[in-house]
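Researcher: Good morning. I'm working through a list of sequences from a screen, and I'd like to move beyond sequence-only analysis. For each chain I'm collecting a predicted structure so we can compare shapes side by side. This is the next one on the list. No need for commentary yet; just the structure.
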Amino acid sequence: MTDQPITYAAAGVDVAAGDRAVDLMKSAVARAQRPEVLGGLGGFAGLFDASALTGMDRPVLATSTDGVGTKLAIARAMDVHDTVGIDLVGMVVDDIVVSGAEPLFMTDYIACGKVVPERIAAVVSGIARGCELAGVALVGGETAEHPGLMDDDEYDIAGAATGVVEHDRILGPHRVQDGDVVLALASSGLHSNGYSLVRRVVAAAGWDWDRQVEELGRTLGEEALEPTRIYTRLLLDMIGEPTADGERVHALSHVTGGGLAANLARVLPQGLTATVDRSTWTPPPVFSVVQSLGAVPRDDLERTLNMGVGFVAVLPADLVDAATGVCRAAGVPAWVLGEVTSATDADGPDTVQGAKGVDGGSVRMVGEHPAG
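Model: Good morning. Structure tokens for this chain:
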């Protein structure tokens, strides 16, 4: 038995610091709202008026959850915390759009060793900014202090979102057809996957994150912390554009962990093959820097990083011009990667069949990237 009383603060949890963090984040959260949100910050649960769903024929809810992973280690090393929240939103809401659903609202969770109000507020401001970009409401969240479990400067973030789509508008392999075109949407950089590889390469080379890299035109850390591009709004516009005979986008793929081929294979049906031609694009310099610095084999690089393609749309050929125009209006480069066929010889070292438990179609990578 101790001679001195032990308080919650003495145990390492500063409730007052948590309250200060909430005060600092209020204005940012206020900008990440939609008319359907009821109540304000600080409730036990976020409230969202779902009465609009009653006007839908058969509303289907879509949900997704994710984190940012080891990219957070670079945020800590650079002491820059207002961009990883954008990454979190992108990783979550753009998974929802893959089904054709509109993301509606999101919640976040931050675990940390010690609440530093300014740092927590910076993280949440990034989450709120991401929600603004996606048109999603940030309806609540939680910050948990874990002294003794995490170091004072450590934190981790996660989020979950919910969206809705009409049943007969759900996108996926069941819509993909022989002759469809594969359209690429450019990434903004590394996004939020493959950072364990990137960090290992950088550490092995003895580079610091504040190193100026000529090929990148900025420091390595600045490049690594470039936020994930959020595609939600432009994709919702794209999938609403029908062809003359009423055809729409058939499938979407968010290029995250596993790389381009594996994620595209997830949205193809068995019996169809997408041929992706590397000669149609030059990956941004950060990918060649990682490859050359770590002598990373190409197949390993392509299985880990997005290589400059953040999203893929599979659509009828008649819709390519309209879809490319939507991307152009949003300031996102887009180009034709290849096409879907019923090829029966889809095998070999550059071919992926199915991925992440999905026994779907195949993706064959061909050609070589043009020199940068």
